[in-house]
Amino acid sequence: VRGLGGRASGGSAAAVGLLRRAVRLARRSASPGREGDALASLGIALVHDGRTGAGLAALRRAVTLVDGHAAARVRFRLGGALWVLGRHDEAYQQVRRAVPVLRRGRFPDALALPLAWVLAETLRAELPATGLPWLLLGHSQWRTLPVLQLAAHGP
C-alpha cells in the first residue's frame, strides 16, 4: 500500500523500491495470487516511471502466476497500460480476454466503464510519453452538477 501511495504522491522511484520489496515478500509467502497482485502493481508503477519494458514484463509475468478472476484483473490493467502506450491492438486483445471473465465474476457491470475511464485517463495524464493532461474527458463535465457533486466524494 505504501508503494501505491508513493506512486500517487509523485515519488515513483521510492514506490518502485517498495513494490519490489512487496514482490519479494509475496514470493516468500508461496502464494501465487499475492505475488501476481504485487507484480501487477509493480508493473503499473514501472510503466508510470517510464520503464515500460520492465513494467510490461512484470504485468505479463503476473498474468502467468494467477488464474481466473485475478488473471482477468491483471489483464485489464495490462490492457490499460498498453492502450496508453499506443499499442491499441494488443490492449484490445488483453481487455477482450479479461472482460468475459470479469463479467462472470464478482465484478459489477456498473463499475466496468468508470474503472476503464479512470484507468485510461490516469495513465494518460501521468505517463511521460502521453504529454500534458489536457483534453481529458472529465474536463468536459464541469457544467454537469451531478458529476461535480459526485466528485466531492472522490480522493
Write the layout of secondary structure elements.
Blueprint lengths: L1 H7 L3 H17 L3 H17 L3 H14 L2 H17 L3 H17 L4 H18 L18 H7 L4
Explain what the structure shows.
The chain is an all-alpha fold and 155 residues long. The chain is 74% helix and 0% strand. It contains eight helices and no strands. It has helices at residues 2-8, 12-28, 32-48, 52-65, 68-84, 88-104, 109-126, 145-151. α5 (68-84) packs antiparallel against α6. 33% of the residues are buried. The model is unreliable at 1-9 (pLDDT under 50).
**Content of β-strand:** under 5%
Q: What is the ordering of alpha helices and beta strands?
A: HHHHHHHH
Average of the residue pLDDT scores:
79
Q: What is the number of E strands?
A: 0
* Portion in helices: over 70%
Q: How can the largest sheet be summarized?
A: none
Shape: globular
Residue runs with pLDDT of under 50 for 5 or more positions: 1-9
Query: What structural category do the secondary elements indicate?
Result: mainly alpha
Number of helices: 8
- The quaternary state of the protein chains shown equals single chain
Please give the alpha-carbon distance between the first and last residues. 15 Å
Rg, Å, rounded? 16 Å
